[in-house]
Design goal:
Elements lengths: L19 H22 L9 H8 L1 H9 L30 E6 L8 E6 L4 H8 L17 H6 L1 H12 L4 H10 L4 E3 L3 H5 L2 H5 L3 E6 L3 E6 L22 H7 L5 H9 L11
Antiparallel strand pairs: 1-2, 2-3, 4-5
Helix pairs in contact: 1-2
C-alpha cells in the first residue's frame, strides 16, 4: 500500500485481493513444481508460501524502482524522486519505464477513463493525430516532446493535451482511435461495464446460477480454460444437501443404516426454513 495512492495522500488499498488470491496462486505453482519433482525423484517435499512473500513478488517492479533510487531519479514518475530512499506513491504513473496515465474521457463520469501508454514508437503518429485538435498542429516536431526523455520532463503537458483531445470522445471511441495508431491502451471498466460486457460473457467469466435459497445470481467464472477438461461453474450446495450421497458412496452405508444414525442424532440437520 505504501506505493499505492496519490502523492502527498494516504496509501490506498488495491482493488484486487492480491494477498489472499496471490498467495494461493503462488502455492498452486509450488505444488505443481513439487509434483513434477516427485515424478522425477520419487520424493515428496514440504511446500510453503507466506502471504508477505507472495505480495512482495507481485510488487517486484516497485522493488526494482527502490534500488534504482540509489543510482538515479525515476524520470517516468510525474513526482520528483531526487533524494528519495523509498518508492513513492505516484497516482496512475505506469512506473514501467514507458509513460502511462489514466485519461479522462467524455462524458466525464467517475469511470470514463482510459489508460494510455505513450511508447517511443507511437509518439509521432499520436502527436500528428491529436495535435491539430488541441491547437498544436506541429506537435510531432515540438522539441519539448521529441524524445522519450523530453516527454518525461514534460509529461504533465502530454496528459493535459490527451485529456483535452479525449474530452470529445467516449472511452470506447478514444480506444478505437488509439488502436488504429497502435497505442497501447485499455478502458477503465466499472463492475457494471464488466457485468454487461460481451467479451466477458463470451468468455464465461460472469456466469448466472440458480440457487434454491438465494435465487438467480451471478458468479465469477473460471479464468483458466482447459481444452480437454473444462471446468463447470455450479452453485454452492446447501447445508447437508449431499450428506446421504456421501454416506452411501464413500462409507457404503445403507438407507437403513443412515436412518438409524440420524434417529440417534449422529448427523446435524440443516436448519428449517422460516
Amino acid at each position: 500500500m505504501s506505493t499505492t495512492g496519490i502523492p502527498d495522500g494516504p496509501p490506498y488499498v488495491t482493488g484486487a485481493q492480491i494477498g489472499d488470491s496471490g498467495t494461493g496462486l503462488h502455492l498452486a505453482i509450488g505444488l505443481l513444481a513439487a509434483l513434477r519433482q516427485r515424478d522425477r525423484t520419487g520424493e515428496g517435499q514440504y511446500v510453503e508460501v507466506a502471504m508477505m512473500d507472495g505480495v512482495m513478488n507481485l510488487c517486484r517492479v516497485k522493488w526494482r524502482d527502490h534500488q534504482r533510487l540509489t543510482r538515479q531519479e525515476l524520470a517516468e514518475y510525474s513526482v520528483p524522486t531526487a533524494g528519495l530512499t523509498t518508492t513513492p506513491r505516484a497516482g496512475n504513473d505506469s512506473g514501467g519505464g514507458q509513460l502511462g496515465n489514466a485519461i479522462h474521457c467524455k462524458p466525464g463520469g467517475p469511470n470514463d477513463y482510459i489508460y494510455v501508454v505513450v511508447q517511443e514508437a507511437v509518439w509521432e503518429g499520436l502527436a500528428k493525430r491529436i495535435g491539430p485538435d488541441v491547437g498544436q498542429p506541429d506537435l510531432a516536431a515540438d522539441p519539448r516532446f521529441a524524445k522519450i526523455g523530453d516527454r518525461r520532463k514534460n509529461q504533465n503537458e502530454v496528459w493535459r493535451m490527451l485529456e483535452q483531445f479525449a474530452s470529445k470522445y467516449t472511452k470506447q471511441e478514444f480506444m478505437v482511435i488509439l488502436n488504429d495508431l497502435d497505442v497501447p491502451c485499455g478502458p477503465i471498466m466499472s463492475t457494471e461495464d464488466l457485468a454487461n460486457d460481451e467479451h466477458v460473457r463470451g468468455r464465461e467469466m460472469y456466469v448466472e446460477l440458480d440457487h434454491p435459497q438465494r435465487g438467480k445470481w451471478f458468479n465469477i467464472g473460471m479464468p483458466i480454460k482447459l481444452s480437454a477438461s473444462p471446468a463447470k461453474i455450479e452453485r454452492s450446495p446447501t447445508l447437508g444437501e449431499h450428506t446421504d450421497e456421501i454416506l452411501k458412496e464413500v462409507l457404503g452405508l445403507s438407507d437403513a443404516d443412515i436412518a438409524a444414525k440420524k434417529a440417534a442424532g449422529a448427523f446435524s440437520l440443516p436448519p428449517k426454513a422460516k
